[in-house]
């Protein structure tokens, strides 16, 4: 009896998949290794420039003179990566991270170059940690900084709790620690002046689901679109359903392209109740509902929902990147309202 030369197709498929994974992993590690070598190269350049610069510190213009002359010699031989502007970044890089042992191999030069432009050390640390924790690419790091993720989280959280989560010193315990208000959805490509409906917004989100999950924040995974809920003979459809592994609960999202109403909140509350009573497992936390709208009336939200409400949230969305001034004004307004509420409680 001769042995067959046939190799079982299932085993060949498994072997092929494993081989692909090994090759891709090796390639990715090689790329990361090259990227980090580049980071270390620019750090050492910055260190050497800084040391040399200190020898001429009595001359205010010595640093500029040094960089200009060095770049004139390096750039023709090694390329544009060693021009005057890049050498300035190298010097700034070393001054921001004077201890080379603290450099993170998960981050590339593009990410570090963006990080060193952040003056606030707490803010810089947050983006550095989150870039590593979430495996952000340089584009994703840039997008989160440009959309002012840190400032938006501070609108409903204090700095200590935001940094503690980024440092992995604690796990988020409430929806407001993850979910942002406002949400910035510029990647959808919808124009503010254009007329569109909820289905257009929903379709755009599904077409850019990866970007939407990034904007949603930590721990989200997609579950369903237009989830059918049958209540006796009546059908209802929840726009989007996600699950958050950190909060350990389902998250139901209703989309509104206008100002929210108390009826919208009531409908979302019904969807949340349905999930709590029919989908939630005994060891899971209560379902969260998010009403995503273009404009909200905080008084309507407050008067419609119970005072101890922790599961229904209203969040505005923006189809453009807000300016720093706009976000700062909103942060200050939120702080002002919170202080007013605190003062009113003390008077009672």
TrEMBL record:
It comes from the Bacteria. PANTHER family: NUCLEASE YHCG-RELATED, UNCHARACTERIZED PROTEIN YHCG-RELATED. This is DUF1016 domain-containing protein. InterPro entries: PD-DEXK-like_domain, tRNA_endonuc-like_dom_sf, YhcG_C, YhcG_N. GO terms for molecular function: nucleic acid binding. Residues 177-329 form the YhcG PDDEXK nuclease domain. It comes from Xylanibacter ruminicola (Prevotella ruminicola). Pfam families: DUF1016_N, YhcG_C. Signal peptide: none annotated. Residues 21-152 form the YhcG N-terminal domain.
């Amino acid at each position: 009896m001769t042995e067959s030369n046939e190799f079982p197709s299932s085993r060949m498929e498994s072997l092929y998949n494993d081989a692909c994974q090994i090759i891709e992993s090796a390639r990715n590690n090689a790329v990361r290794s090259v990227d980090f070598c580049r980071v270390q190269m620019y750090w050492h350049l910055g260190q050497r420039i800084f040391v040399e610069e200190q020898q001429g510190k009595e001359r205010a213009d010595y640093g500029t003179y040094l960089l200009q002359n060095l770049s004139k010699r390096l750039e023709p031989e090694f390329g544009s990566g060693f021009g005057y502007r890049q050498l300035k970044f190298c010097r700034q890089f070393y001054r921001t991270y004077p201890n080379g042992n603290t450099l993170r191999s998960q981050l590339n030069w593009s990410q570090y170059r963006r990080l060193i432009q952040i003056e606030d050390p707490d803010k810089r640390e947050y983006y550095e940690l989150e870039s590593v924790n979430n495996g952000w690419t340089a584009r994703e790091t840039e997008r989160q900084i440009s959309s002012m993720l840190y400032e938006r989280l501070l609108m409903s959280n204090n700095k200590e709790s935001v940094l503690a989560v980024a440092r992995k010193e604690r796990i988020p315990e409430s929806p407001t620690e993850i979910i942002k208000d406002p949400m910035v959805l510029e990647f959808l490509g919808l124009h503010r002046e254009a007329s569109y409906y909820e289905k257009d917004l929903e379709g755009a989100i599904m077409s850019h689901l990866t970007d939407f999950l990034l904007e949603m924040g930590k721990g989200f995974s997609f579950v369903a679109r237009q989830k059918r809920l049958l209540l006796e003979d009546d059908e209802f459809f929840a726009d989007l359903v996600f699950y958050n592994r950190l909060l350990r609960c389902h998250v139901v999202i209703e989309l509104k392209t206008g100002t929210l109403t108390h009826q919208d909140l009531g409908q979302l509350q019904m969807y949340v109740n349905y999930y709590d009573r029919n989908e939630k497992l005994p060891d899971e936390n209560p379902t969260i509902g998010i009403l995503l709208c273009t404009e909200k009336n905080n008084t309507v939200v407050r008067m419609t929902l119970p005072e101890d409400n922790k599961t229904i949230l209203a969040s505005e969305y923006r189809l453009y990147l807000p300016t720093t001034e706009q976000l700062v004004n909103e942060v200050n307004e939120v702080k002002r309202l919170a202080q007013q509420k605190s003062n009113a409680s003390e008077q009672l």
